[in-house]
Amino acid sequence: MAEEKKKMTFEEILASLPCKNKEVPKKFAEIVSSVTDENEKVYFYVISDVVLGSRYGESFAAVTDKQLVSYDEIREEKLLRFNLGDIEKADVKRMYGNALFRIKTGGKLIELNKCSYSVTEYFDNIAQYINDLNEGKDRNSLIEGVHESYEKRQLYCPKCGARLPYKNAPCIKCADKKKILGRILIYVKPHVVLLIVALVMAMITTVTNLIPPLLTARLVDQTLVNVADLAKGTPEMDARINELFLIVLFLFIINTFQNIVGAFRGYILRIASERITNTLKTELYTKAQYLPIKYYDKTSTGSVISRINGDTANLNSFIMRISQEVLTQAIQLVGIVVVMVSMNPVLSLLSLLPIPIVVVSAKIFSKFIHPYYYRIWKRGAKINSILADTLPGIKVVKAFTSEEKSIDNFTSTNRDLINENLKTARISSIYNSATGLVMMMGSIVIWGLGGYMVLTKASFLGSSVLTAGGLVAFINYMWMFYNPVQFFVSLNETFISAFTSAERVFEILDAEPEADFGKGNIPEGGIKGKIEFKNVSFSYEKGKKILSNVNFVIEPGEIVGIVGTTGSGKSTIVNLLMRYYENNEGEIYIDDTNIKDIDLQYYRSSVGYVLQEPLLFKDTVFRNIAHSDPTTPVEDVIYAAQVANAHKFITKLPDSYDTMLGERGVGLSGGERQRISIARAVLKDPAILILDEATASVDSETESIIQEAIERIINGRTTIMIAHRLSTLKKADKIIVVEDGKISEMGSHNELMEKQGRYYRLVKIQSLARELSDEGGIFEGDGK
Amino acid sequence: MDNSVRFFSGRNIRITPGSMGVFLNVTMPDGTVYEDVEPRRYFPISDISKNISIVRVEEDERGKDKITEYLIIRDIANLDEESRNALLDSLNKYYMIPKILDIYEQKSVYGVLQWKVLTDRGEFAFDIRDIYSSIKQLSSGKILIIDSYDNRYEIDDIDKLSKKGRKLLLGYL
């Protein structure tokens, strides 16, 4: 569980310096203090894990307020120092599995430290710091930035110093177990009555479980004993027969009672369990919907899915075990021990003999068998991936006649899986038989000694004389005794596994959701569509600016094209406009209101966004178009489809608007999928429409169909079109050319062509390419 | 327009160390010299001694790497000894794929597999988060391990590991 951290003030940051990626060895600290003067402050340390000879070993770089100090034992001149102001440039050259921290000074490149990828980002930070500082940027905010980056990468628990399993992971050692347990129990609270009822039932069945062996003892010792001396029809024989039926009836009642109670309990537990899992899953899924995009930048969707499915199930099973099993198993354990000791303390002690062997071997076995199960899982996962690749990709398999190769691959992996399964089964069988044998030996010893005690009527340590029935009952109890023992042996592992799952689940639940400072603030008369970027700068990661000082105004109803090479920052402008990221510098205004002050849901519902790769859901065509509101009137959906040039092809599908689309929109071409997503945007009737490379993945013919649809829908709306094919932007009122995160040109098509700048060059290159393509030249045409 | 890079067997090419680090000076059979160029492997995992590209890495006006490729040497074995040593030394500096000689310790902590190993470059500790995709057995029989920071390690021959190391590794293959 991520503990909430208070943001440090700059004074606190300054006091906490130097930043370091790991504990600074005393020797390194002494080297630095020997070359710094009294008032010199050390800001950052990077302790590297590789030395210049490409071997593992420690070296370091340190940045003070005046100089950069680098030390490497392998280098001829071990210690190097440079005044920060003399460094022309610092950088990190990424190689393969390692990187070099270098500086350029006096026109000469100097290699300072080598590191593995584990440390590279720290060198990036100090290189950036030195460069930014020499560019005249504010030292304090630079220190703050580096400090933040170091903190984010914390691999050691700041509290106890224990190594964390991954960056910023919560420390399991320091986590307050009671607090976590308390949070888990919150999910139990609404179902506490059900769980108490189930617990009472469990306790009743546990107690009644102890009765049958006592009855069988009586049966052996009194009812069925010395029957040869009894004549048929005598009153004593009749009494014996009555007692036999009574005991049998009692056994029948107890067993029936136990089964009925067991069935009810099972059902009650299922209700509680399903409800708890449902609550957990729903809470997680709901939270996942409102997490900002930046959360998904750092966490894979697969990991979120596994938390929603796997970890909630794990937590649920833990809740069930804790709320039910702990108490019932404890009652059973105590009950059995009390009965056994009261029956015969000596045999009780002897029956404990196999326990240490069973407990220790169970521990060893679980460790030993774990890799085997992992191998089975890995092979199972491989089979799944073969299926996931080859079945949906069956067209490619057939086209390249690789059916036999696929079958061979599948067969050999499957054979591998079977072999691993059999190997594991062999080991498990041996283990189960061996532990069974140990326990059986215990019972054989009890049979031997107990039998001797029965025959000789011997008693030890003041125990009462053992009867044959007592011995049978005792051995029954002994077998029952092993269950709770096994349970408590594995309890610790259950706790650890559940706490890990809880941490993972709570990490999502505690994550900061998307900020919506303008909640409830809906502009009067709706959004008109004026967009203004004022001195907007943005970086996904501190230190790497993607947009710098971007300024533009788009009037309502204007059609604006954004042009630029890959990585220039076009999509980042859209990301900011969609409010996927909000931690930008500068301001963005919509109709002269700060974008952050408008209700987020309302704002997004006023923006239509058509992506290059349309995402269709596993649902009908109708519901895919009416995605934001499935109750939309049919007329509106059909109208939207007509506007998007999608209606005709939809009606040609056998199930028309009821056609079920698969996860990949099976059966539809790229252009058809795009037209459905355009219809979805049309239905929203957005004030602002963003078309992000909407026609980039389709052929020329389809492009013109989509283009026609686009021209129909952009009328009267503020439209932002991102396009590589500049021909699609001819109708734009304004074209913004983005280069390296800055706006390099802005104007109408004609203005920019006259200017003969970047846009002009791009247009010329594309026209030349088209001409060559038309002549059958070397360029690939658009799907031709 | 012919942008294809020329392949050379390696014979008659002279390679000497460049001004620093990974840099090399390459003299072509026709006498052309490429100074301070760098080598790159086309197959850094499956065939490390063949198809070595010789490139120049410069910074373009936007501060990004601009790579110019001059030639490809088909096989290091064809170079004369001095050139081969210079090239191998540079490749060893650029490519760091330590060979794991033994596995001392391996434990799973909350889904993260922590390793302590002995490599040909010294002892090292690393973590693996995604066990499934991070340990790969290549068709050559080699094992490739990628840690949570994308550092790579190789095991040439499982049988050369100690019994304990082999046992620890086999559990994840």
Radius of gyration of chain A: 37 Å
The biggest sheet of chain A amounts to: 6 strands, mixed
Q: At CATH's second level, what is the architecture of the largest domain in chain A? A: Up-down Bundle
CATH topology of the largest domain in chain A: ABC transporter transmembrane region fold
- In helices, the fraction of residues of chain B equals 10-25%
What is the count of helical runs of chain B? Answer: 3
Give the SSE map.
The complex is a heterodimer of chains A (784) and B (173).
Chain A: H1 10-16, E1 19-20, H2 26-35, E2 42-50, E3 56-64, E4 67-71, E5 79-83, E6 87-94, E7 99-105, E8 108-115, H3 117-134, H4 139-152, H5 177-186, H6 192-209, H7 211-223, H8 235-290, H9 293-298, H10 301-343, H11 345-351, H12 354-390, H13 394-399, H14 403-456, H15 468-489, H16 491-510, E9 531-538, E10 547-554, E11 559-563, H17 570-577, E12 585-590, E13 593-594, H18 600-605, E14 607-610, H19 621-625, H20 634-643, H21 647-652, H22 670-684, E15 688-692, H23 700-714, E16 718-722, E17 734-739, E18 742-747, H24 749-755, H25 758-774
Parallel strand pairs in A: 1-2, 11-16, 11-17, 14-15, 15-16
Antiparallel strand pairs in A: 2-3, 3-4, 4-5, 6-7, 7-8, 9-10, 9-12, 12-13, 17-18
Helix pairs in contact in A: 3-4, 6-8, 6-10, 7-8, 7-15, 8-10, 10-11, 10-15, 10-16, 12-14, 12-15, 14-15, 20-22, 22-23, 24-25
Chain B: E1 6-8, E2 14-17, E3 24-27, E4 33-41, E5 50-59, E6 65-75, H1 81-94, E7 100-109, E8 112-119, E9 122-128, H2 131-134, E10 135-137, E11 143-146, E12 152-155, H3 163-170
Parallel strand pairs in B: 1-6
Antiparallel strand pairs in B: 2-3, 3-4, 4-5, 5-6, 7-8, 8-9, 10-11, 11-12
